[in-house]
Task: structure prediction
Amino acid sequence: MLPLPRFHPTASVPPRSTARRGAAGFTLVELMVVVLIITILAVIAVPGISRQLANRRARTSADFIATLYRNARLRAMARGSAVLVRFDAATSRYEVREAIWGVQAT
Result:
């Protein structure tokens, strides 16, 4: 039977191997490659996203105007009077007016 080795409590601990030490993190080159890939993907995606936002804004505005005219038409049919839908460019707002007999416009 072989004797067990004795360890001295004040003996220096051997350093870790270099292979283990290098596997603990990323190198600067690896991080720069990842940043470059993310940048390229963002540059490719931005025009498509901005186009979708513009299309969504246009669709939302068209839906709003269609609803405004639909409600004005329903009001005119229900009351049997004329309804005016007007866009005021100075205030950028839509205005709905209804004609009522015997009342003068102000």
